[in-house]
Amino acid sequence: MKKILIPVDFSSASRKAVTVGVALARQLDAKLILAHMLDQNVTTSSHNEIERINHNEHTSKEIAEKFEQFCKDPAFAGVIIEPLLQNTHDFERIAHLANDLQCDFLLMGTKGKKGSGGSLSTNNTAQAIAEVDIPVLVIKENSLQFACSKILFVNNFDTESVSAYLRIKKIANILGSTLDHLYVNTPGTGFKSTAEVDALLFNFFQKSGEEYPIQAIKKVHRISDYSIADGIQSHSQLNAIDIIAIPTHAKRHPKEQLSKSISEAIAYQAIKPVLTLHI
After folding, report:
1. Rounded to an integer, what distance in angstroms lies between the CA atom of residue 223 and that of residue 100?
2. pTM for the complete prediction?
3. pLDDT of 259 above 70
4. CB burial class (10 A; 0-12, 13-18, 19+) of residue 77?
5. Which of 90, 122, 148, 135 is nearest to 13 (CA)?
6. What is the helix (H) or strand (E) element at residue 95, kind and residue range?
7. Strand ranges (DSSP E) for the chain?
8. DSSP conformational letter for 173
9. Which long-range contacts (CB under 8 A, 24 or more apart) does 57-66 make?
10. Which one of 33, 41, 137, 167 counts the least CB within 10 Å of its CB?
């Protein structure tokens, strides 16, 4: 894990993400790529085209200088950073950047609701979760000191999420984290008996290549609740968790709406950092 991409908009939420990014960069000896999305269509009361262009150029220059000063913060001491000023406010560019630069991680700060005052909004976070192929770590503005000692992997344990499980195992190993598992049994057509859950877990761990699938089953926490988000909250209240990890479908996947709604709800509600991984 050598490249961490962080969108920066100078808000307290993005500064929180940068603080976490610096800690991870030091731990992993990784480079931080700081990207600011520059809005070149800044609104102005002038109806004169030349005045509007001059106003936008002046504003862009001010933002560029502010970004340059931001990247000189002493907090970055000892960390390799690469500042990128993007001449677009289209957040889809982040997905292209992540792929073009071969980043390993996208780290985003959010308020957990639609942003105000220029902060990264829930819409941008949801877009990143849906479109960025690399793991996305969402940090709440009001989250406490970041730690990664224990990761809770929340999963429905169907075989299509095996790839996400293998990725989170690798990430946990890199971070030196303990990996816990949670299965939330919800009411309705998806409810499963104990025997059915056992069979589901056995098949999953067998497909994952676990040498001892029965032993792996015993390590899965099970909880019944009205929704996955409620189950995670209930479990987290009784257990020390640092990061919540959840697999999610890419935007192009036909199950997009269901998967996005779950991952977005968790990223919105949870105070703990949330890590999403594409299936």
Report:
1. 41
2. 0.84
3. no
4. exposed
5. 122
6. helix 92-100
7. 3-7, 31-37, 81-86, 105-110, 136-140, 150-154, 178-185, 220-224, 243-248, 274-278
8. H
9. 63/36, 63/38, 64/38, 66/10
10. 41
Q: Which amino acid is at 253?
A: H
* Cα dihedral 188/213/154/246 (nearest 10): -120
For residue 74, give both structure tokens: 């002493």
Place of tokens 């992540």: 98
Angle at the Cα of 266 from the Cα atoms of 26 and 227, rounded to 5 degrees: 145
Summarised one tens digit per residue, pLDDT across range 31-64 is: 999 998 876 555 555 556 655 555 556 567 888 8
Task: Count how many residues are written for the chain.
Answer: 279
State both tokens at 195.
């025997």
